[in-house]
Model the fold of this input.
Amino acid sequence: MGRIALQLWTVRDALDRDFAGTIRKVAAAGYQGIEGGGTGPLSEKDYLALMRELKIANMGAHVGLEEFAGDKLERALDYHRRLGVKYLGYSHWEPRMNADTWKRIAAPMNRVGRAAKARGMVFQYHNHAHEFVKYGKRNALEILLAESDPAVVKSQLDLGWVVRAGEDAVAWMKKLGRRIATVHLKDTTVVPKAPPGAPKSRAHHKPQWTEVGTGILPLKGVVAMARKLKVPWYIVEQDSWTIPSVKSAAISYRNAKKAIG
Done:
């Protein structure tokens, strides 16, 4: 049975006001884990003490490849491992991307992935919508995963962005199969129509995000496929809100927990 974590970007405004207090509220809402990227204003010692007190796992972090460049690789991985992180997520974007862009980043991702695996960690690529733009017969995500080593570069499939790209979330889970390490549970209200002539896979309007279970994400099908694939973590994320972010996160947890069982 998969556990539920919260990507702390969801409550970034509350963290800015009260870092430790917000994590306490996240734990009180029921979350078993958090995905972040650092210790905020806390020292490593105090951060780890807070995790132990709350009995919540610091299961993941989102990182940049520059953090692991050259001789920084070992130090960066050791830092995250000290914090209890197992899953490292990475996303890529740059202006004027093409098929060669995705082929080019495969090698450094393999390098980090091999070193992470040696430490019992998992390196995973986190998609947005632009990975579904096609270059010839394949889209960017297909190119990237084909060019990278499946043993050391996994997928953190962000299901909300799959839907935003006009794609079938459950079908993509089935397609990627055991290449998926974790999933982001993200829900949206309406997929906006792209301007005439624009690729359907690009998000042309500001996304309308909503609490998990209150939008068009096929949550029941997602959970059924995640169970089949034995996905260990469902990570709730919401980029924008119409109610206080901590309250929003609590609603998402309750809905996700009900669906997962």
Observations:
- The chain is about 40% helix and 20% strand.
- Residues 189 and 215 are 5 Å apart (CA to CA).
